[in-house]
Amino acid sequence: MIDLTAFLALVLDAAVGWPQPLYRRIGHPVGIFARIIAALERRWNVPSRSDGQRRMAGAVTVLILLGMAGGAGWVLQSLLVAIAGPWAWPLIAVLAWPGLAQRSLYDHVRLVADALERQDLPAARATVGMIVGRDTAALDDAGVARAAIESLAESFCDGVVAPLFWLLVLGLPGIWAYKAINTADSMIGHREERWRAYGWAAARTDDAMNLIPARLSGLLICLCGGGGWRILWRDASRHASPNAGWPEAAMAGALGLRLAGPIAYDGILSDKLWIGEGDRPARTEDIWRGLGIYARACLCLWFMAAGIAGGAAWAL
């Protein structure tokens, strides 16, 4: 049942994404997690507490998120199965669909390429600034293109492969527990002084939940990009994250580019290592090539989900 659910959720997300009229009316489900995280952080992550107390508070935050997201998913899935029986799977797919981001990620990155093609650098900077955390005001065309490609690669794991993986493994509780933790990591899982202790548990939990999906993402990018294996094996460990380097190194190798490198956050330069090789700057054409690889990799996930569903049906 979950296999069919995963396939239908992928189809729904690719077809319509999360429609803007729906977003304007009710927002997105991850917004619920964001409000909970922000409220707990304001209450518990206070400078007067020791690092140990703040780390413990952060761990409790993670447990609350896992309990709420996973518990709500389990209750809803159980109710649908009890009511609809063997026909519950399409209803579960509808509830899982917002946890995927195939369409929205493609659309966001495409807008960056469109702006660069129009030679509208301010618009390109503003658009890429919506999907990356680095400073974008001083980026040139190559810097914007590189940022878009890096975000595309990393978000392929966070927005598509990882939620699909947890949907297949644990059903509705799995995908929404993952989305809750991933949201927490993006909000509080940072190394700056304010977040280091309180966000430690969120960052480590997100690392654990992305361990397999990140490596699968890298393999799919190389497979669908027709190469990049040498850079994947050589450079995946150069990223500060134990997981993000896998899809990023795969994309760098497939496109023949250098990604990452020194990046500014809030006016402070972070001297990151380069991933990949090559002397030429990233271009708009590379964004389109990256989007093509991404689309083929998503299609591979469709076939994988359909194959798993077919295998399960055959076994029954």
TrEMBL record:
Converts cobyric acid to cobinamide by the addition of aminopropanol on the F carboxylic group. It holds the Pfam family CobD_Cbib. The lineage of its organism: Bacteria, Pseudomonadati, Pseudomonadota, Alphaproteobacteria, Sphingomonadales. One of its GO terms (cellular component) is plasma membrane. Keywords: Cell membrane, Cobalamin biosynthesis, Ligase, Membrane, Transmembrane, Transmembrane helix. One of its GO terms (molecular function) is ligase activity. Pathway: Cofactor biosynthesis; adenosylcobalamin biosynthesis. It comes from the Bacteria. InterPro entries: Cobalamin_biosynth_CobD/CbiB. It is a multi-pass membrane protein. One of its GO terms (biological process) is cobalamin biosynthetic process. This is Cobalamin biosynthesis protein CobD. It is found in: Cell membrane. Belongs to the CobD/CbiB family.
